[in-house]
Amino acid sequence: MVNSRRGFLGSALAAATAAPADAAVTIDAYCSLGVDREYDLTEKSLLEAMDRARVARAVIAPVDRYLAVDNRAGNDAMRKAARQGRLIPACSVNPWYGRRAVEEFRRAAGQGARMLVLHPLVQGFTADDELVFPLVEAAAAEKMPVYIHTGPPGNATPWQVAALAERFPQADLILGHCGATDFWNDVALAAGTLPNLYLESSMARPFLFAAYVQAVGGRRGMLGSWAPLNDLEFEWSQMRKFLPGEFWADVAGGTLRRLLEKRGPL
Amino acid sequence: MIVDIHTHWGVQWEERTPGDPTEWLSYLDRHQIDRACFLPTAGLFRADQCRADNDNIARMAARWKRLIPVGTVWPSQGKQAVDELRRCLEKLGMRALKLHPWVQGFSTALPVVSDLCQVSAEAQAPVMFHDGTPPYALAEQIGGLAQRHPRTQFVLLHSGLLWNWRSALHAARLPNVWLALCGPHKRALEIFAERGPRDRLVWGSDFGFGLADQIEYRLNLLRRARMDSKLRERILGANAVRLLNLA
């Protein structure tokens, strides 16, 4: 990693004031539910981890295979898992399916999905490609936030997502992973002036994410663990340690709840 | 014994306590780190500060013996880079070379990089690469360099970071490629432990670029990753001792 903006990272040292152990609502913004390749998260293991971490709710998204292909199967699996009550279903469609992608998105939304997930690396497009415009418009119409995985190699950068946010000011866009790792120095600048662009913490690592939140404000930050690639309990414990207490209620759930409840109460 | 293969003497630290790593070392104490590879920062960002930063690193390592000095050079400077590497290894007592193709702006395909690998091999000094970043610091590119220089030991300091780790794992099929578990997520660490070279996995924190304490996170990530305890011990210490010929 590199640090050319010294003051920015330096502030993370001062940020190490313990956050409160609990907040009014705690929502993990991103978990991949399923067992496939490097993923091994079941409903049972997720709920157990949430209990240990004192996390009330978690957004669940399909694993990579169902982001790339078989979107409907992945979306249906999330909907079924979410019957449990504490899990909040996300859906995904591959933009390359065009009109069928929009139709599948609307179907999933009608069945209870609360977030649209796009993954430019896995789904094979550039984040600001016109392929995604119909989906972002549809998500905005459904009052549903769009979570976009960001990071190397270069087709999912913070500035590309910022371009989308600028083009669609009525849409809520979530910068998944904050461009981790090597686009980290773009995050605060790209997000800075766009009120509809939100930052999600997974992979950005707690010791850096605290500095992002200080730059853009807690009302635009949210804590995601991306279990099972990360250890949910550990990510939450580290965030409790590094995030200044004043931001905790928003980052631990408040920000995401406000977005998700645009469609109605959770 | 714990050896942190990847720390930096950051610009902020130099401004805070010039030439004195006492406070910096207190973070190592806090996490019971015994030894640390001590890499420059200013010299990675600015060619005109490279030589002075190498001197500063060597000076501190000479006084604080826990620090294992690692120097850097700028391949774009051609012969001057080779000369500086020789000075680092022969006069300053550096134990390894750090290269950062992204920040220093060079391709591993440059002929001078081969010269640097040759000099490093002669001195039995590993070449440590930032990796995981396109277009010049991909794990597979450094793997290609390692294939062309079988006598040189290469360390991928980030094991492909978060998305390039499969390529890092493939590069480690080569017996002269070592993987530093500093960057990939926990599941990838577990996969490295399952499928990677058990005797060429090492651990690092990247501590020191800024002032934040990232040792705790990186160390606990490794401790929470599922692997047998003997392997974890080797990753934390024994493998690095062998790589660096530490007493």
Q: What fraction, in percent, of the residue positions of chain B are helical?
A: 40-55%
For the biggest sheet of chain B, the summary is: 8 strands, parallel
User: Count the strands of chain A?
Assistant: 9
What is the makeup of the main sheet of chain A? 9 strands, mixed
Radius of gyration of chain B: 16 Å
Cα(first) to Cα(last) distance of chain B is 12 Å
Low-pLDDT residue intervals, each spanning 5 or more residues of chain A:
1-22
How big a fraction of the residues of chain A is strand?
15-25%
Mean pLDDT of chain A: 92
| Count of helix runs of chain B | 12
Structural class of the helices, strands and pairings of chain A? alpha/beta
Characterize the quaternary organization of these chains: heterodimer
User: Structural class of the secondary structure composition of chain B?
Assistant: alpha/beta
Shape of chain A: globular
**Strand ordering within the main sheet of chain B:** 1-2-3-4-5-6-7-8
Order of helices and strands of chain A, N to C?
HEEHEHHEHEHHEHEHEHEHH
- The 3D shape of chain B can be described as globular
Q: In percent terms, what proportion of residues of chain B is strand?
A: 5-15%
- Over the alpha carbons, how many angstroms does the gyration radius of chain A reach? 17 Å
How many β-strand runs of chain B? 8
* Spatial arrangement of strands, main beta sheet of chain A: 2-1-3-4-5-6-7-8-9
Protein described:
The complex is a heterodimer of chains A (266) and B (247). In chain A, 43% of the residues lie in helices and 16% in strands. With 266 residues, chain A is α/β, with parallel strands linked by helices. Chain A has a nine-stranded mixed β-sheet, with helices on both faces. Chain B is α/β, with parallel strands linked by helices and 247 residues long. An eight-stranded parallel β-sheet of chain B has the order 1-2-3-4-5-6-7-8. Chains A and B meet through helix 1, helix 10 and helix 11 of A and helix 10 and helix 11 of B.
